[in-house]
Amino acid sequence: MKLNYKKDLSPKYLLIALSVICIALTIVSAFFPDVLKPVREVTGGIITPLQEGVNDIGTWVEEKVAVFGDVKELKAENTELRGQVTDLQNELGKNEAELAELQSLRDLYSLDELYPDYEKTAARVFSVNSSGWFNEFYINKGLNDQVYEGCNVICDDGLLGIVVESYDDYAKVRAIIDDRANVTGEIGTAGNLCNIEGSIQTMEAGYLLATDIDKNAIISEGDKIITSSVSDRYLYGLTIGYVISVEQDSNNLTQTAHILPTVNFTDIKDVLVILDRKQEVNY
């Protein structure tokens, strides 16, 4: 008959048997220590290395847990620092934008002081064509701000152009570099008359042409060109640019000068519109 140990061997009896063995080993160890010495040596040789291994594993696990904790903490700190860097970058960008706005306002104020005799209003460019030049663009002021056709527009230190169309809350400006533009100017202290021709082509080379200058007029490099009092569209005294070179024409009757405009026609954001106008004309 085969015994079923799982059913026939009671845990109670197993516990009693183990207890008796333990008591017996304790008595033998107390009264006959030399008897168990070989057993202790064998078990010590087995258990001690196992214990040391377990201790090493425990130490390794503890170190890895500590490292994991440090990495987790470092990741949290890194995330926090990234957030702080982003906030600082946003704040820096905001400050730079505010400084740029402040500088723009200062520039407009300085420009306003250059022409104190004229009433003006500030405007911002919001649309420009795709030519790469600000030869024709739109500003955010119009009829509601008394900006009408014929109003002169200035920027940097001088003349930018003229309003050619005006609507309730915006207007279209044509710059003096546009191919359709034409400005009557005066050169130098003698006030020699000339005609400033708009041309994107010559602006590509960095200048505008001042034509029809009297052959006897004494023109020098660095002479200032302003709008003439005889102009029917542009107010008097607005700076156009400076002479960079001059040459006699082939007809021997006139001279032509190369003019460096005072306005940077590749980057315009804020302008002043002069509300005073000369007579209205068709553009």
Separate helix tally: 4
Nearest-integer average pLDDT: 83
Tally of extended strands? 12
- Major pleated sheet: 6 strands, antiparallel, barrel
Q: Can you give the helix content as a percent range? A: 25-40%
Helices and strands, in order, run as HHHEEEEEEEHEEEEE
Q: How much beta, percentage-wise?
A: 25-35%
* Physical arrangement of strands within the biggest beta sheet: 1-2-5-4-3-12
**Helix/strand/pairing class, anyone?**
alpha+beta
The stretches of 5 or more residues where confidence is low (pLDDT under 50) are none
User: How far is the first residue's CA from the last residue's CA?
Assistant: 124 Å
Radius of gyration: 47 Å
Q: What is the molecular shape?
A: rod-shaped
Quick structural gist:
With about 280 residues, the chain is an alpha+beta fold. It has 4 helices and 12 strands. The model has no long low-confidence stretch (mean pLDDT about 85).
What are the SSEs and their pairings?
Blueprint: H1 5-8, H2 11-31, H3 33-114, E1 120-128, E2 136-139, E3 152-155, E4 158-166, E5 171-175, E6 182-187, E7 192-197, H4 200-204, E8 208-214, E9 224-227, E10 239-248, E11 254-261, E12 270-274
Antiparallel strand pairs: 1-2, 1-12, 2-5, 3-4, 3-12, 4-5, 6-7, 6-9, 7-8, 8-11, 9-10, 10-11
Describe the 3D structure.
With 283 residues, the protein is an alpha+beta fold. It is 40% helix and 27% strand. It has four helices and twelve strands. It has helices at residues 5-8, 11-31, 33-114, 200-204, and strands at 120-128, 136-139, 152-155, 158-166, 171-175, 182-187, 192-197, 208-214, 224-227, 239-248, 254-261, 270-274. Strands 1-2-5-4-3-12 form a six-stranded antiparallel barrel. A hairpin with a 5-residue loop joins strand 10 (239-248) and strand 11. Helix 2 (11-31) crosses helix 3. The protein is rod-shaped and about 140 Å long.
